[in-house]
Amino acid sequence: MRFLPLLFILSLPLIAQAEQLTVTPYRPTVSNPAELSALQHLEVEFGVQSNQPGMEEERNSLPFLLKYPFADQWGLLVGGEAWIKSRSPDETISGFGNTSVLLKHYYPINSTLAVGFEAGAVLPSARKSLGQGRTDYLGNLIVSQDISDLRIDVNAGVTRKGFKEEDLDRYRYNWAIAVSHPIDERWGIAGEFSGVLARQQKPTSQFLATLNYLMTPELMLDFGGTIGMTTITDDYGVFAGFALLIAP
Questions:
Q1: Per-residue pLDDT tens for 184-194?
Q2: C-alpha–C-alpha distance, residues 144 and 178, integer Å
Q3: Which CATH superfamily is domain 21-246 in?
Q4: Looking at residue 8, what is its pLDDT?
Q5: Roughly how many angstroms between the first and final C-alpha of the chain, as a whole number?
Q6: Residue 5 to residues 12, 14, 86, 152: CA-CA distances in angstroms?
Q7: Interior/surface letters 154-168, b for 16+ CB within 10 angstroms, e for the rest
Q8: What are phi and psi of 185, to 5 degrees?
Q9: Count of alpha carbons within 13 Å of 218, Cβ hemisphere only?
Q10: pLDDT tens, 84-124?
Q11: pTM metric for this prediction
Q12: Which residues lie closer than 8 Å to 245 by C-beta, 6 or more apart?
């Protein structure tokens, strides 16, 4: 019996390794995976992004997202843009962006297939020239499928605009399909098509490509870019950022 404490001490590194938590990045794709991050642990995502809506226009921002799964299969997401600078030939505007608050539910079907649902609101925390001016309400359905090392995330959602523009429908329908694959133990790649549909408006769509690097089990870095695929979509964009699991 005298050897039991010694065996317990020697087994501590193995226990810690078995309980190693890993980051669950959502950024930088438009689509989210069905999964939640580590239960009752805060995960932070932050980045820098520059979009070119046109030849003489530019929009720079600092997007962020806070994720906290407070119960099994339930989590809270709070995100937005910590800073925006929008430049056009007529004016340059900067300030804090809108803030989204979402409740997320995760439901695993089997070891390779899962669904998720997000519902919440986008609050008008930005000045009117940088945001929508009123609260938007949204819902998003997610299906995530693993095929060997390949991950496919499909998102389909709807947003009800709080402010109704003249002769335009309040509802916007968003879609996104992302495919990701690891290159090795640390590097991975992803590609995504996404867009927005609305009655009485031309559709928008873009292609996103990203490269990510797992620096530690709790920290992933990413960088990449987007290319617009319709005349009313931003011409292109570039971004870089990180996802960090804050584990005690």
A1: 999 999 999 99
A2: 10
A3: monomeric porin ompg (2.40.160.40)
A4: 42
A5: 32
A6: 11, 15, 62, 46
A7: bbebebebbeeeeee
A8: -70, -25
A9: 12
A10: 999 988 889 999 999 999 999 999 999 999 999 999 999 99
A11: 0.90
A12: 21, 22, 23, 24, 37, 38, 41, 43, 217, 218, 219
